[in-house]
Amino acid sequence: MNNNKQYPERFIESIRCPNCGSGAKQGFQFNDLHCTQCGTNHFSLGDVPCLFPAGTHHKIIWQHQTATMQYMAQQGLAALHESLSRYDLTSTTRQRLAQIQSASQVNLNTILSLLQKHGIDPIPDEQLNQMNPGDLSEYFDLLLRDWAWDSTSNANPENTAALQRTLAEIQKLPNKPRRILVLGAGAGRLSWDLHVHLKPEYTVALDSNPLVLAAANELVHQRQSIAIGEFKNFPQIGFQHAQNWLLEPPLDVDNLRATWFPLGANVWQLPFERDSFDLIVTPWFIDVNGGDVRDLIGVVYEKLIPGGHWLNSGPLLFTRHLPVQLKYSAAEIKELISLSGFALVNETIANTDYLRSPLEARFRQEQVWTFSATKPQSPMTIPAVDGALEPWLIMHHQPIPQGSYASQDSHPLIDAILLLVDGSRSINDICYEIGPHLPQDVPVKDVVVTLFGQILSEQSNGV
Length: 463
Ligand SMILES: C[S@@+](CC[C@H](N)C(=O)[O-])C[C@H]1O[C@@H](n2cnc3c(N)ncnc32)[C@H](O)[C@@H]1O
Description:
Layout: H1 9-14, E1 28-29, E2 34-35, E3 43-45, E4 48-51, H2 58-84, H3 91-117, H4 126-131, H5 140-147, H6 157-170, E5 179-183, H7 189-198, E6 202-207, H8 210-221, E7 226-231, E8 242-247, E9 260-265, E10 277-283, H9 293-303, E11 304-314, H10 330-340, E12 343-354, E13 364-374, H11 391-394, H12 412-419, H13 427-434, H14 444-460
Parallel strand pairs: 4-9, 5-6, 5-10, 6-9, 10-11
Antiparallel strand pairs: 1-2, 3-4, 7-8, 11-13, 12-13
Helix pairs in contact: 2-3, 6-7, 9-10, 13-14
The protein binds S-adenosylmethionine.
């Protein structure tokens, strides 16, 4: 695989083993994707480093997802084949089915060969069959939106609008970003466009989905085009039923791709040390990462340098399975931002088309909330927020200030938790330390938050 990536020293120094947190000095070898400290072997997807806590075991999930996708696609193709062999079809129906069959076959061939080229074979896993690890092609349409519907011969304004929205915010920032992290970068178009416009020292395009990562790498780094079929489940009057597209590598005469780094990782176990980036972008991400926005704010805060900026752009279309208490409104998120120590700089709200295919009469409109927030150079006094006993009780990454925390109840676990308060540990840090000593079914965070919540409310009631 043609690898012209030039990882700067600074990038390599900031990388951490996602399993044990070791950096280069403690034994994490980025070049070999191996951690001598915890013994975890990591792997690459083609030449895209993949840093997950389970190391190479994570590949088993991707292989299983590939096998599932292959099985489903083959089932669909077999059904089409069966239909096309019937005698009771008119030519018009036959033509429609044949177009869909052709596009579907192109996709299967392309996805399998792309992933195989990147080292992922379709291998089913019995245990994962019971667990349903998710659909590999969930974000397939992003490949089309990012690289097919928008070409010189077939302009599509969605990508341009996304770039303009983010650039407009970045231009208001006091400094040009040098080290950029894009979380949930998808098929990579926005992170690539930002990289080309801003020419930073480097940009990391991080995602946990191997299909979008491999496609972005194939286009931008391998300079190979990708054939993709698009077909619609419902006929649209006056539109084609299917189309085969050729996704082309973006122009890059200045070899800017040498410092644009796709990275396989999970946002909840980010393989970077704290204070690693001066701009973190979350495009269409805060609502679909499988976790709590307040924790994501903590992650972003930790990985930004003091004075660094967080730029968010996207809707609040939280995934279906997220409990209602985590589907925060914009007003709640602004409170969480403020309680975390960030200063909200600017915000805009716009309605925009989303994944508007040239093959569809219908399209979605999304309400896109774009904002930027700055991490102060030094911790500032956090403004009071109604109902919040203390910022650190709500934003679990904030250090718990030293003080007298005494509980009316007596228990060795309570004593152990209170002993850990040292002015720098947060609720997350305390959970991390005591978690391994508690039975697995004990909800550690709930225990710690409830304990401090009771202490604080007793104090405020003068008990
Ligand atoms: C809605 S898509 C947005 C993609 C891209 N930012 C865009 O605007 O087109 C969300 C992306 O986040 C990725 N993602 C979701 N959860 C993630 C996680 N926990 N860690 C890393 N990536 C994640 C998905 O694989 C997907 O590519």
